[in-house]
Amino acid sequence: MIKRLELKGTPREIGEKHGREGAKQIQQSLQTYEKLFYGYHRISWQEARARALAHLAAIEKYDRQLLEEMEGVAIGAGVDFEDILALNARSEIALTGRKDLSFADGCTAVAVTPPAADQTLLGQNWDWKSSQKESLLLLHIKQEGKPDITMVTEGGIIGKIGCNSAGIGVCLNALITDKKSEQVPIHLGLRAVLNSWSLHEAIANIKGGQMASAANFLIAIDEGGGKTMAANIEVSPFGIEVITNPDGTLVHTNHICTPTLKQHLADLNEFKHEDSLIRKSRAEQLIRMTLTNKDRIDEECFKVWFSDLFNYPNSINHYANERAPEHRRTQTVFSIIMNLTKKRMLLCVGNPAIDRYKEVSQHDGN
């Protein structure tokens, strides 16, 4: 279903094993993004590497161990460090910086906590280039002094979507905008969230303009004993906005929802009114229907919601729009459901269907 890597040791050791055992997936990522950067910006891979290097000083100041892990990935995979850095800065390179850039993205993320449910549930459909299905890796990471991490990522990228042993989970929604900075790429911000022991620490790692581009991080935490919370955190080079809901339900798709970001950034999602807003409204409708019917919200509900085909092909269960240019076609690459209360993860590679989710162990050796 998906290649699984058990990684432990120093950051360099973790990176080297990722690079060595995930070399095929890393090559897939390199091929995809070389084509994608040219398709979006008409830039060569060498230019993409140069743009990634602009973030180097900020990353070193932010967390030197992230650089050491990326250096290890490059050594293990037999590629240049700049290649791996470009993969980890791929959102900053591809999705920002041009007011004439128009693009339709498609991720839908949902969190449900008490009082809407008796458990803390978090998940999303991750929609992107279909070729990246071949790049997927399931990483189990053990680091000294930090929580254990279970994460689904693209080969070579050291931070993405997953959860940790401290009860924190994070999902990602891209926000396509006109501006970026030379601060820390958002995928490394996702890793910093997963390296955190608390919600307070996670937010501290991404606030204050530390992130180089805009995105939404849907973060949830279950500390046990009913102590739980979820928040949409729209990050940007200009600071963050936090969206919570005391009713216990949150949804985010791919348009900016908060006034602070709108003051500073132009939202360039070209199908904002036909696609992202519709998916967000549809997910909220599905949640409301479940609550109105007094049905129990659980993993099975998430499977139904993420398999939804309303407004096909630009549905929550996203399929490639054949009318779009080839380099702009996206579809659901994987669907993930995290039960932070039970410390359980369900994963479906490819377009989701209710019977295609498989449980993924979060423990070594299982």
Automatic annotation (TrEMBL):
Domain Peptidase C45 hydrolase residues, every copy: 118-353
Organism superkingdom: Bacteria
TM region(s), chain numbering: none
Stretch list, region Disordered: 1-23
NCBIfam families in alphabetical order: C45_proenzyme
Protein name: Isopenicillin-N N-acyltransferase-like protein
Organism: Caldalkalibacillus uzonensis
